[in-house]
Amino acid sequence: MLGNFSYKNATKLYFGDDSLQFLNEELPKYGKNIQLIYGGGSIKKNGLYDEIVKILKDNGKTIVEDGGVMPNPTIEKLREGIRIARENNVDLLLAVGGGSCCDYAKAVSVSIHCDEDPWDKYYIRFEEPTCEIVPVGCVLTMAGTGSEMNAGSVITNHEQKLKVGHVFGEEVMPKFSILNPKYTFSLPKRQMVAGIYDIFNHICEQYFSGEDDNTSDYLSEALMKSVVHSSLIAIENPEDYEARSNIMWTATWALNTLIAKGKTTDWMVHMLGQAAGAYTDATHGMTLSAVSLPYYRYIMPYGLKKFVRFAEEVWNVSPSGKTDEQIAEEGLQEMEKWMRRIGVAMSLSELGATEDMIDGIADATFILEGGYKVLTKDEVKQILKESL
Amino acid sequence: MLGNFSYKNATKLYFGDDSLQFLNEELPKYGKNIQLIYGGGSIKKNGLYDEIVKILKDNGKTIVEDGGVMPNPTIEKLREGIRIARENNVDLLLAVGGGSCCDYAKAVSVSIHCDEDPWDKYYIRFEEPTCEIVPVGCVLTMAGTGSEMNAGSVITNHEQKLKVGHVFGEEVMPKFSILNPKYTFSLPKRQMVAGIYDIFNHICEQYFSGEDDNTSDYLSEALMKSVVHSSLIAIENPEDYEARSNIMWTATWALNTLIAKGKTTDWMVHMLGQAAGAYTDATHGMTLSAVSLPYYRYIMPYGLKKFVRFAEEVWNVSPSGKTDEQIAEEGLQEMEKWMRRIGVAMSLSELGATEDMIDGIADATFILEGGYKVLTKDEVKQILKESL
User: Which fold has domain A189-387?
Assistant: First the structure.
């Protein structure tokens, strides 16, 4: 049953290979000082940095540099970003990069005018911002996290060995995002594939929960089928514009709140993956893929009906002459075949995790409700061991 | 291929059987004078009118009455609504009803501060508003048109025998809409079914166009499957909350611009149905159902691949041992079976149209591009004759 909920998502999206020009439409809405946020510098190599700097200058803006955002942005980097923003009185945070840059920009945006420590306030106590929020815009160069149209922000604290996501309210969503599928062409294949699995897993986490048969489930299946279809084209030809554009668009809708509306969700794969990520610093999507199948195989008996539907609707498993358990297991086998075919990490060992880390990762795993089975700490350890 | 496009839809939705209370959150954002727009008075019988009046008074608002909006709102009624709004200096147009009330409210909203004649400006010349737009809010009591989260507005001019829709820009979308599935329970079954077909047809018009295989097509199939599934429950038990809530939610997403993004669309069934509607004043959804199958059977050979996909994905037609034409025709047969089962109008004669009206209806039919075959006037007449 679709429960009571509200929905608003006011991010303006500009999509396509001609979308960067719309930065010229957005910039006049904001003040002079633009904090230009980016990662390791790949945008300097491929020319995007120069293009954006030119547009900013043509619009009379002052550029405040904030490069070097790492794949799993740290609390130390966040503190640096806040300092840069305060010292330069910035009016807009312009993130150019993937989900990490966008997540980081949102974390900075809610902290600039906040006196409290952002880690404690947002990532430990999960409070909402009570201060002025500096607007965020995004030029996306990697598809996966959906950060371009949601209010989520994941920050890593290495000292505390914690990687924590906070989903803020709608006012923290980017004001605009520019999505040009061609910017994703130059990503290494491993990054592309990690993004694809991240998309797929976002949908799974919202799909595998609840007993209802509502519109969100149908939409989830549609997005899963679309991303699976396009992924098989993209791994053969990463420059297939149609496939990369569908992947990019699917990423946005996989995690912009729509498919979770009116239903329960289960984010345990993210909890397990993020805890492993804090120990290994591995790519987010790969930590998710490494723990997914052991987790889903473990909870499958508790949500059998949904796993049967998943097998039939997403993977076209024929039910004829099979028990529900067989159909459901065949669905997970098809999923596993697809994961191996696109080449995601199938174990935590591949990502550098070792047996002696299991207890620590398990302790760092938040146990959430919402899934077909609320895990005990022992079950978390068991699933992590099976993921090694 | 997903082409270049922009997307923004900032309507705030409050969904569920507890959603009316959120009117208290929205009202303080607007001035004192609220134009209360409603239809034939059913909301006075079922108590909703009293509930809303109480909330308006509790929020210190002055109520400006504007009842009597008819199912196909006329240009004369629109002129009356504009006069009421101007005389009372209204700050918010609150539409309580179905798509007609909401469409009408949007037409008033773009006309209050506009000196030109709204019919000529918006429904003949299709211009955009250049004046201040008065905000619109909506309390929805019927699912179908999607008007609660889009910028469309259809107005009928009986003198000119024209029923014309204008899709305005995003700034004309309602600021908020309240969607309580229980408000749809009291609708006569014929109205419910007309709404269901309207939803399905909105999806068809965006789906049956283009040769691409993009995410929008997958989403369209998901919405079609969901509304077909729920419709079969709702015709047996109109008070099945789960079914009615899925129908209501599907209606919103079937026509809030999402599934048309990045692709071409074909609105010919609406053009044919609206022209017939201007002659018969029949219920919108029923005019669409009456012309749909003759139209789709006519264009099927020109878009065969998509009709094959439709048959397999939406209606689970098995392709084995069949030609593409057979698969496609079987899909349309399944669609026809479903239409008969829920009880929509299967011909224009049922709606009061006669042979002598065909030439007039054909002349009033706008011929659009975007479909698999751009119709000639003779083909329009042929399809209308087959629809009789």
Answer: Dehydroquinate synthase-like, alpha domain (1.20.1090)
